[in-house]
Amino acid sequence: MRKTKVVIVGGGFGGMFTARKLHKLCGEDLEIELISKINYFVFQPLLPEVAAGTLNAQDAVTPLRNLLSGVHVRLAEVTAVDLEAKQVILLQGQKKLLQRVDYDHLVITTGQIANLSLFPGFEDHSLTMKDLSDAHRLRNHVIECMEMADVTRFADIKQRALTFVVAGGGFSGVETMGELAEMIERILPQYPNIQAHEIRMVMIQLGNRVLPELPERLSEYTLEQLQKRGVEVWLNTGIQSATQQAVYTNDERSLPTRTIVTTIGNGPSPFVQSLPIKLERGRIPVSQQLQVIGVENVSSIGDAALIPLNNNADSPAFAPPTAQFAVAQANTLAENLVNDTRGQPLKAFQFEASGIMASLGGYRGVAEIFGRRVSGLPAWVVWRIAYIGMLPGIATRIRVGLNWLFDYFLPRTIVYMAESDRPATRYLDYSKGEVVQRANEVPAGFYVVVRGRLKQELHEPDGEIISRELQAGATWGSRALKESRLTHGKITALEDTKLLLVGSEDFQRLRNTYGPLNELLTARQK
Ligand SMILES: Cc1cc2nc3c(=O)[nH]c(=O)nc-3n(C[C@H](O)[C@H](O)[C@H](O)COP(=O)(O)OP(=O)(O)OC[C@H]3O[C@@H](n4cnc5c(N)ncnc54)[C@H](O)[C@@H]3O)c2cc1C
Question: What CA–CA distance (Å, rounded) separates 486 from 325?
Fold first, then answer.
């Protein structure tokens, strides 16, 4: 007889724990397949520590196959669901071949993605904190800023490089800022040309306190700790836009910086948006039994789902998007899937978190556990013990424990591993007065003005300065790239301006391969 097949999309807290519990409950009676676009489980609360170099990126994650014996794991990106045919549609392998996979019951646990579309410039000029590659990128970016600040001759470049901004004062914002502050404090002695007072760390928080999920006293303690470590906290302030060189706020302040980390602005992924399901508050509406409303044989849990905690239409309450809740939902869902196959009634999801805690870096933390409020070193110790206990897989626990031990005794490494995943071709935004390019720089690539106006000042060999205006459609950079020489002009934005930068290597390859482009550019240069 054919076994019932449960397909789980997503290998995070919701998906991985559902698969594990389901296999534990029914062994080989069910066929379980977990599809994830990455082949490892990320314990997201540890990401700020990866960003700060406390933990090695690879040591903070666990391969799904090691955690899920008896479950078929498929590395693929699900792009759509055919509800009528009961199939998921996915892209698989290097060539991204389209495949269809049958299911009897589908579980959607794909989490949420950073959605920064409301804030112009943030998608191109800020760093997010969602997955391992984000944490890895932030760590390298901070080291790159320190290296640059140590050697630059320009005061404005140094100031921008040494200004670190975190947007959002919730758990991930506070933990990221705390860890960054500790990292910078510890690596500073390795940069003799940077003084501690030149470093500026700013947290921008829309509400009137940080960590609003915690009691007021712990929020105040957190604020004090951040301030003690030199972090400026801008309360009651919203982010508005960002450029290549600055962040702008809703009270018309601007802060020149190269580093903006955003921990706010979550939204549904393109896959969740593509589902033939009407989303509520950007999430998949489910019943208390975790079944997607109006759709048979499909469940959803974790951050992707809107899960009611009561039946009260007047004051509805929904499960918060936290790991603790996702794991509890996974347990209920696994039991319900088994009950369903056995024709037994389904359980309603109910859960009360036993505690809530955050690490502030520098051996400080805040926690509320079983109603008791703890702060400082004891809270930080509780945080570490609790998290090592929650990590799935003994090997990962040992690796994380050893990383913590080494970090206590050894200096933080400042090995800089160049970014590889930032697109070479990307948009850049500049505000009025910001300098896009100076003379004698290695050209970053070929620029196209998408909108706005710029002033180009060319320094001729006889000392004359020729000034001209560049508008939408104007381009520059091809000649400097072709002749392998440094830039000889200064370019400044005259108004808010958007540029497309085609990275130098990509541009040279295109030019060398595609004859008509080469001819056009050569003709324009004459
Ligand atoms: C920096 C940070 C710190 C946090 N700290 C805490 C904390 O201290 N305590 C706490 O309780 N919570 C914390 N959280 C929140 C917690 O991590 C989330 O609530 C939890 O991860 C949600 O689990 P999930 O399974 O819904 O989604 P995720 O864990 O995000 O997993 C989603 C999975 O789906 C996969 N996926 C997505 N789309 C597709 C697709 N189309 N096809 C295939 N696979 C796909 C992803 O690769 C991923 O594996 C933190 C979150 C962050 C970002």
Answer: 55
